[in-house]
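new request in #modeling-help
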Amino acid sequence: MRRYWTRGLAFRLSALVLTATGIVLVGIVLATYFLAREALLHNVESNARNQAQSLVFRIEAVLAPIPRVAQGVAYELESGSLSDEDIRLRQRRVLADNEAIYGMAVAFEPYARHPEELYYAPYIFRSPLGPKASNLGGTDYRYHGMDWYQIPRELDKIVWSEPYYDEGGGNSLMTTCSVPFHRMEDGQRRVLGVVTADVSLEWLKRLVAGISVLDTGYAYLITRNGTYVTHPAPGVAYHESIFSRAEEKGDLDLRRLGQDMVRGGSKFVPTTSLHTGKPGFLVYAPLPSVGWSLGVFYPRDELLTDVNRLALVSAALGGGGFLALAVLVAFIARGITRPLRRLTTAARAVAGGNLEAPLPQQHGRDEVAELAASFGHMQSSLRDYIRDLTSATASRERMESELRIAHDIQMGILPKIFPPFPDRTEIDLFASLSPAREVGGDFYDFFPCGENQFCFLVGDVSGKGVPAAFYMAVAKTLIKAVAESSRAAAQRSSDSKRDGDPDAQARGMAARRGADPGRILTRASNDLAQDNESCMFVTIFCAVLDMRTGEVRYASAGHNPPVLVRASGAPEYIPTRQEPVAGAMEGVEYTTDTLTLAPGDLMLLYTDGVTEAMNPALELYGEARLLNRAAALAAADTKDLCARLSEDVHAFADGAEQSDDITLLALRFRGPGANAG
Amino acid sequence: MDFTQTKDGPFLVLQVSGRMDTITAPEFEAQCAACLDAGEKRLVVDLSGLDYISSAGLRSILSAAKKLKAQSGDIAFCALSGIVAEVFAVSGFNKLLPVFATRQEALARA
């Protein structure tokens, strides 16, 4: 059954149609067969009766006249006008006129014709040489006691004898019709004698035996006593009667049948043939003149031969028609599914990547055509989509390649040479930056700003990606420019007005101290806040180290407090004043604070990408962890420290996506070196 | 984010609740712009219902404040809590814009 569902539409369509048609055809053939059979059997009776009746008429046609002929002779004898010679002549004429009569006798009562003759019975019969006259009666032929004489005489009516074999008549089966004739004696009619007509039954036997009833059907004749006159089985005729046969085989039905036939019944009954053993129908009718009965047996299966043949023919026709239909349906089904198959092929071509594959032309507006039309729409939509996707991908790839270049440019503007000043051994510095995307908003910077001054800073622009990168480039460049210009200005003023003036002295001192982080941030913030339509801002931690004294001046614009790991002592966070982010608004002033580094002390600057790094469990790296790790790694050199710390943050993130740039800048003060002034 | 407006004297109190991040931040700017269009120039923003703020949120606040300032209006914030208060402190927005502990204090200013 499963195979049915896996086959194609054409197959299923054909299978369904043919199954339905097959059932209908079979039904029709069966119904026709049964109906035809019933109709046939219905007709059998009337046909059989007709056939039997026509047979009866044929037989009667021969037998019926015979009693009349004999009666005619009897009347003539009764009129008393016939001489012996006349009788002979009459007999001759009868024989000449009636082919069926084999012989005729006129037998008289004892001494009735001639007073001295006991027996007087002139007889004529057909011999091979022609009609021959003779006389019956004698000591060896006492006819008065014979059936053919005695019975009609006693009954005084026309009697047909039982059939008998006549040795004199060439050993043929005969029957005799006896007609009594009378004279008036004492006012009463007395039998004078009997006229007999002998009829050969050979022709009858031949006739009845020759009746062909279908194939194994047959006809038979029985007498008044049931004795078979003819029978298809050899040796039955004359020797057996219907009753003796019925008795022998214990067939009660046959006995009843025989009784009815003998009674003169005429019926059509279903029965089983004793002779052939086949079931069938028997029709019987009486022969009125002779009192016999004719039976005709029709075997049922042969009756139905025609019907069966009809059924076979119609079955064959049906089968042939079915086969033709099968072929036709298969063609049609394939024809219907052909557009589908073509469409499937085209669809495969499209699915394989060929969006220009032509779809099969559809005729008409049926479901398949609609499917093809929809498919065509889908195909052109796909084409459009892929075209758009291709161009979007191309532009995205362009953008990505531009971003990669931008990344390189952005990384390029950050100082990357470590150590920055190999000849200045006072400091050990390392910085690293890993952006979350190709470009980002974090930055660091370091540069000398005075003979013994070293400026270092870290910044974080609000937001991510390209906007933050732009702002980052501007901010970093601006801060350095501000730092260098303020240092240069201070230097100039200190150079030009050195002596006497306390302000000048103060300015000079300031100049010698170099750039001031607070002032740097103030100026940078103002510059950034101008024309800041986007309202972006940046957090910065900016510091300046005096390499002779270890003094660090610093200022913070909303940035994370750096870690301070003293060589001797616990690590701590450098407190900030929580002054605002830079570039948000104009007019913000930043305060410079101071701390002093002893040799071996370490400062660690970072952005919130470190402390706010998140792992899949949504936990933050946090300030505490950073402090601990920094303390643990304090002994390492700054490059190592930055590397290991960076690793630690990535390990903590444990595969979670990096959401913010991670920036680290570590600076260790080694103490004043050989260049100390 | 959800916004509720209440008029209290010369001030329009804007109650904000939800999260202010990259996606929702523009809603705040739009609300303030609508208030400006309606002629309300003195805003008090109640952030007691705000659970979270990102740098994008800070930018929106800054932008709204600048727009009001340009129209001679002013804006004050009150009832900050939790992470929002922390962010305002660390970023120094406390010092950039007027921030009050309670609504009453914000409404009490001249």
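bot summary: The longest helix of chain B spans residues 55-70.
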